[in-house]
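Risk register update: the risk of archive-format incompatibility is retired. Evidence:
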Amino acid sequence: MAFGLLPGGSVAALAVLAFTGPAGALITAARAGGGPSAVWFTGRGPARRGR
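Archived output:
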């Protein structure tokens, strides 16, 4: 059982690294489009800190 964790964890880590760039670009495009449902689903974006 422990032997399966190492390959499974490695594959999961590679999948996360492989999809981070394309997913970020897709979310940025959805936010920029300004459609209400897309903004609701992806969020407004990074929080802005006021002074």
